[in-house]
Structures are given as structure tokens and as C-alpha cells.
Fold these 4 entries.
Entry 1:
Amino acid sequence: MRKLGRFVIDTHVHSQRHAAGSHLKDKKKETGKKGDFDYIDLESQMAAITTFDNSPRLLYDMDCYGVDMCILQCAFGMNNDLNLELVEKYPDKFRAMAFAKTTMDAILAGEKEWDMKDAIEELDALLATGKFCAIGEGAPAIPESAVNALRHSYSMSERMDELRLVMDLARKYKVPVTMHTGGPGGYPITHSRWPENWHPYWIMDLAAEYPDVNIVFSHGGMQGGYNTDVFKQCLVVTSNFNNVYLETGLYWTDLYYEALRYPNVGPEKLVWGTDWGASIPTQTRIGQYPQSFGMQVHNQGIIRHQCDVMGWSLKQIERLDISQDDMNLILGGNALNIFNIEFPLTRMFKGLPNVGRIKEK
Ligand SMILES: [Zn+2]
């Protein structure tokens, strides 16, 4: 596959992998569980499993598919330190988002109750180092296993007030905020953990209250499966506000076209991101629409290999019959602009006069 754009950035990458095998074996002994663990078991354990650096596989795929840079994100117990090590080792290849890992660990260990203020305090210290380009993955939220123990569902105003604290912090450091949307099918994402995940329309108020803060919908409403209702809501919000962007997640070709033709969306509002490393396998259903899509399917069991999501996703984009200048925005230009990343030249990306200029914080 030829390189698809002038500068290609995958804005959603997990470079850490969970060493789940031995942990799950111990759990099996402890609980007396028969048979294989499934995605739901795995999700409940992931935050407690040690992660390791998976960058050799990531660098292989980047080289294979002509991906210049990746924005590293933490999820499920992944830690900021490993991501920063990569950023420091390969400054022209990686950037990292800030994640409130210590707060999450304390909640899981039963040392703390959930309080957004703790997460904000931790993120404040991380962003003050100047080493992070955004807040993510998603806005801080109670870990899923703690939600179940809490047996509490958020009211809209309760969660919106928490999200306003995140937006205040993003404004202070002039960084974008990611809001998680969609679900992979296997790991459950409940309303109580991330209500905004299932209610993208809530983000309208934040976009209006903070017009100077950029918001990126992680996965753009499509993290798995082929039901498009969350995607369609994300599209409406993105269309209504200049400061809201769609990460293209697991979009198949026609979803790109739908976003490209939607008024006020278009190539200026799309940023490519795959969720590389998230263990979401690609499903092929010949003759069905869409013929291939990402999803964790319970009866297939947990995926063991490094699913090739970059290759699949770039093939969906390669099929787009649009100008190369538009492709360049989706594949990297918009991300350079939103995440405030340096670029050696000006005037290489349509309508983005700030890309390539010296950055001021
Ligand atoms: Zn992710």
C-alpha cells in the first residue's frame, strides 16, 4: 500500500498491551471458574493487569503502512510513563494524551471514592509538565468495576458539572479534550461509567460554553458493530459547532462519505484514528452491508493476535474519491492543527494557516 497522505497521524493508538494470560489463570484458580474467560471477565480485570510496551509491533505497522506519527492514549490501566518514554525516544513519531491513572488505581484499590476533583488535580500536574497534547482517552470517569460496586447512575447535570471541570482545565492549558463515544461490543461501557458516551448530544452545551476549547469525539460514534445511531448523533453535534471534531474510528468507506457530505462537517472536521492496540477484531460478512466492520464478538472468544486495524482502516480511506488535499486534512493536517504539533513547512494543508508556524503555548 502506498503512503496515503503527506503526513499521516493515527490519533488513537494504544502502545501498551496487557499481560493477561497469567493474571487470568490465577483468577481462574481463585474463583474456580470453568471454561475460557470472555470479554466481560477481561474488562473487569484489565485495570489491575500490568501492561507492557508493545511498541515493536506498533513501529512495524507504522512502517508497513506509511504512518508518520501516532498519538498515544491510555485506557484500562495503561500508564502515562510508558507512553512518555516512547515520546522521548521517538519525538518525531509519538505524542501522548494525559490520563488520570493514579486516581483510577486508588479507586480500584478501595483507597478512594470517585471524585472528579482528584482526577482534575492529577491531570493538572501532568499537563503542567508540557509533555501532553490532550486529555484522553475520554473524560475521566469511574472505572467500570467500581461503577458496578457503586450501583449509582448519573443524572445529566451531575455528569455535566464534572465535565465542566475537565473543560476548565483544557482551557487553562489550551489542549483539546476527547469524549468517548461508541462501544466495541465485548467490553461493556455502561451509562453509569461514561453517560456522555451514549449521549453525544450532551456535548452541545459544553461546545457552546467553551467555544475556545476543541473537543474530539473518540471513535466518532463508531467503536464497533454497524449500528450507526451514536455516529449520527456525533455528526449532528460536529455540524453545529466549529470546535467539535470527529475521530473517524472504525468507519467503513460509506461512513466517511456520509460525514464528508454532511453540511458543516466535511474533511475539515475529520481526524483519522484507529484504536490500534485495543483488541477489536475485524469481522467479515460476505454479502452483508457493511461487508467488514470492527467488533468483539462474544462467541469468538478473546482475540489473541495483533489485529491489523491500520491496514483495514487505510483501505477504507483509500477508496475515497476525493481531492488529495482533503485526504491530507483527514489523515494528518487537522490533527497537526488540533493537537498543536510542529510541522516543518507552512501552506501544505488547505485552510490551516497555523500548521507549520512556530507554536506558542
Ligand atoms: Zn482506545
Entry 2:
Amino acid sequence: MVKDDLPQAEIGIFGGSGFYDLFENNFQVVNIDTRWGHPSDTYSIGTIGGRSVAFLPRHGHEHSFAPGEVNYRANLWGMRALGVKQIIGPCSVGSLCLDIHPGDFVVCDQYVDRTKGRAETFFTHDLGKGVQHLSNAEPYCKEMRKVAVASCKKLGIPVHDGGTVVTIQGPRFSTRAESEWYAKMGWSCVNMTQYPEAYLARELGLHYCNVSLVTDYDAGLGKYAAVTGEQVLKVFNENLDSLKKLIKVMVPALPHAEDMACSCSQTYGLFE
Ligand SMILES: [Zn+2]
């Protein structure tokens, strides 16, 4: 699966809404085709703090793909082909909890899947690997989460260590009734892309760390904490600035994959 002619990178980063470019200069653009189809766009390979990094905007550079249209399997397969072992998956979220404010970052440790019809496994009949039912009780990398939280604290970014993101199908936002339901369940925030992205990383044996950027309060909290569209846009842009600073601190601080004590990589190599 790893092609000799492809540049290699240790760490992969997916860009979400508004985050379409990572490197300003000294990067290589790579076009990858996969057995699962085309990734959302070309990958950019560069270096941050001495670590090699591959970047891909998950919706494409022009934000062409709706959350339900993103080819998550191709995006992850391409990362794997580049040699990536650790992935940072930032995403914008709405808060479901009055303790989680716009401008806060939540490094989630759980997700709830409310999507439908997405291609969500590499264990398909035609791949000939048989069916495997992987443990997903701990869907995110705990080692990377520690580094993400410590890096946020270092930068003074308000951060929540752990949380549950519910992933909805989109592209529509939640109704107030849906949002109130999610909030009553005790979930932290709502998003449209964490599933199956995080899970597919697990199937490939890649370490995956979420960073949820809180843009606003979701509909169910609206009557308690209304925000204007102008405020949302301001927070959204500030979050992107903070995220870029976080990446510069977090990437060099990550332990090398082979030195990590978590169990994320149990299936690494299965799809060589
Ligand atoms: Zn891990």
C-alpha cells in the first residue's frame, strides 16, 4: 500500500470548514488515487517543528463536498499511503452544554454516530480481509489527547479534556428538539464529520485525535445563550487562528508513534 514514489509523512492533519491550507511555503503537493476513489483534494506535505506532516482539507480546497459526500475512506487511505501514523482531526462544533463556550476547544474522547448511509468500513467483502468487529469503546487516541490538552493550556486556549461529540448527517443543522435531546443525553458538542473519519483511522491502526472548535451554542441552548451571526463568524475566525497556533505547538510535542503506550495501532499493517 505504501508506494515508493510517494513522499512520506509521520503526522496527518485534516482541515475542516474554513481551514483549507496549512503550509505557506516549502511544501509538496501530492495527488493520490485510491481503490476507494479520489480523496477530497491533493495532499500538501511539509514540515512543522522538524516533523513531517501531510495536510488534506476534508471538504476539498473549494469546500466542494458536503459532510455526507466526503469520501472518508479515500481520505484516510491516502494518509496511510503517505506513511502517516498519527492524525489530528480538528472540526467546528456547536456546544450542547452551557459550560462549553464559543471559543473553547474540546478534545473529545467519545463520539455518538447519528449519520446515515456513509461508507464506514474497509472490511468489505471484495477486500478479502474477512469481517472484523473492532473494539471501539475508546475511539480516540488517549496519548495524543494528552498532548493536545497540554498544548492548548500552554497557549492559553480554554480547553476541555474529554467530551462527547455527536455527529449528525447534515448538511442541515439540528432542529431545536433534536438539539435539546442531545443536550439532555449529556453530550458535549455536535458536528457533521467526526464519523466515520475517526473510526476509519482506527481500522487502519492510526492514532486519531479530535480537536473540536466551539463556534456557537447549538439550537437547543438558543433560548439560554443566543448569539448573533456576526459573533459566530468572529469566533469562527478566532478559532482558526488558535488552531494554527495549536498545531505549531502540538505537532513537535507529539511522541513518535512507536513510543506511544495506547492500543490504537493494533490493526496497523492489516491492509498493506
Ligand atoms: Zn493512540
Entry 3:
Amino acid sequence: MESLKFCPLFSGSNGNSIFVSYGNTRILIDCGCSFKKIKETLHTIGEDICKLDAVFLTHSHTDHTSALPMILKNLDVKVCGSKGTLIELYPKICDYTDKIFQIGQNQSVGVLDLQVESFPVPHDACQTLGYNISNANRSISILTDVGFLAENLYSDVKGKDLVFLESNHDLNALENCSYPLHLKQRIRGDGGHLSNENAGKFATHLVNGGTKKIILGHLSGEANTTELAYETVKDVLKTNSITANRDVMLSVSERGALGETVLL
Ligand SMILES: [Zn+2]
Ligand SMILES: [Zn+2]
């Protein structure tokens, strides 16, 4: 039987794009790198950018949308985002309205062999979304750019086989890094990003709900490291009697690098 394929092409505050495919369906969640880089990286994992069916946008920030004008210009794809995202991106997308589709909160959209469902995420871009992607047997959640663990996330992201979860910063490293004060306040604020500690807390919820694989991502450049994210989340899981790589497969998508391909 064919597998659901998942691969973070890029992740981190410098660029985000995730590839998911099943059967005849190939989609991207976000496109925050150059068109050339996305094309080359897809080629590396044996995929052709021209065969993409759709691009789903979580929000308008540049690290999630920078390739959008080139994608709209060069590819025959659907681009889906919230009303707020599409309004914020309007100057970049207004010549391609035939390819643009609005998706509401908690709306489910079929794209050939895949089902994509949105849910609201608290972040400082208008109507930020996370996505659940599934076929008949398997399900994936993508949850990044999370200001805080809002109540709805506990029900919207539950019981998925694989979750790509933001683990953006270590609170001490953020406090002591060279970022200006206003940026530090934004990152740790309710419209900012999820700390390693809170990623651990949410990972505990996920494992208790049956999730078997968690990939940590969207790491900060100055206020985190791959090891720090992994160890912090592993330690929080341990305090909740969950052993990483026994009860759940835990890994980190390295900042700026091609992530692992997972077949479900
Ligand atoms: Zn981001
Ligand atoms: Zn953002």
C-alpha cells in the first residue's frame, strides 16, 4: 500500500516549507524560501515542483510565503490561505486570483487523495492557521508559529500519527541572546513563538492522545539549538513518565536544512 509521505524541506525563522504527498496528490504547506531553493530541494527528494497540486499557507509572514509570487507565476497550483492571510498578501497575489482560494477556520478541503483541515493558531499575523492532513488511514498535524497553547489546540491537534511541532526557543537563551528587547518580547509574547518548555508540555498531551512521532521545528537562530530543543522536550516528557524513542519517536528538523522524509 502506498504511504503518506512527509518531508520538511526547510524549517526555522529563516524559511519554512513542508512537502506532503499521497497517491496522485502533492502539496506544500508554506513556501518561505526562494522558488529555486524549493525546486532544487524537491528534486533532491525525487519530486518535481511542476507536479504540485496546492500550496496551503499558515500565515502571511515572509518566512512562510517568500516564494509565493514565483509559484503563482510559474506553476498551475491552487494557493489556499485564510481571509486575513490573503488580504495581507494581496499586493503579491492580486494578478492571480483564479489560483487563490480562501479557507476558513476549522474548514476541511479535499485535494484529490488528501484531506486538509485548518484550525486557528494564536500568532501576530492575521488569522494564522495550522493544518491537519490526512488520507483514509493516516494523519499529520503541522503546528508552528504558536504564541501560546490556546484551548482549541488541545482538541484540534489530537490523535494524529505525526505532529510537526514548533519548538522555537529556550527561555534562558532568548533572555541572553543579542536580539533587541522588542524582538525578545514579541517572541515570548502571546503573538510570538512556542518555547521548548511549552513544546514539551504540548508533546506530553500529544503522546497521551496516541501520537507516535513528533518532529520539532521552527527553531530560532540565536535562542535555540537542535540539542537544546531535543533535550528540553525529552526532559519534560520524562517528568510525565514518557520515554522518548520508546513511547514516541522524537526528532528535530535542523534549522535551514532538509529534514527527514517520513513514510506513514
Ligand atoms: Zn515563522
Ligand atoms: Zn510567523
Entry 4:
Amino acid sequence: MLKLHVKKGDKVLVLAGKDSGKKGKILRVFPKKGRVVVEGISMMKKHTRPTQNNPQGGIVEREGTIQVSNVQLICPSCNTATRVGNRETGKGKVRVCRKCKQDLDK
Ligand SMILES: [Zn+2]
């Protein structure tokens, strides 16, 4: 399986597209497609039919997917957009921040 450098719940910086420079939290990842959904990023309007929950129907805004290569992880320790490294723990690999060397996965 393709391994992404980000995962659900990560805070990321968007590097390209109309939301370039914005920050948001990863809501969903699609490892096979190499795409992610980031909170508040790449919003698109979607027309919906009336449902029980939304009797009016109409237009809702929701996040579209973006290329995972267009986001960079923001390290929770040093609060900077950073590249992700890996560290072998003996039990497996953990992601580490290339800048402050802190573990990204707690
Ligand atoms: Zn860091």
C-alpha cells in the first residue's frame, strides 16, 4: 500500500492551488489516489436533493480532495511546516519532524 506522509488529524499547510498558504486539518486520506481532504480547503459547491435532514435541499459547500504532494505537514512541536522523516523504534517506524526531531506520532 502506498504510504502517505500525512494522516487523518494532521495539521497541514497547503502549498499549491487556490488555497495556497492556508492551513487546515486533514479530514480524510485516500492513499490509493494520493489525495487528501483538508478542513476548509478546496471548498466546492454541491447541489443536493431535499432529504429528511435537509428538507430544503439546495447547495451545500464541502471540501474537495487535493493532491497529497500539495500539502506539507505542520509539526505540532515546533509549529513549522516541515518534511517528515522516519525513525526506527524496534517495534516499527514512527514519523519524526526533520526540523526539531520530535516524534510526530504520540
Ligand atoms: Zn518540529
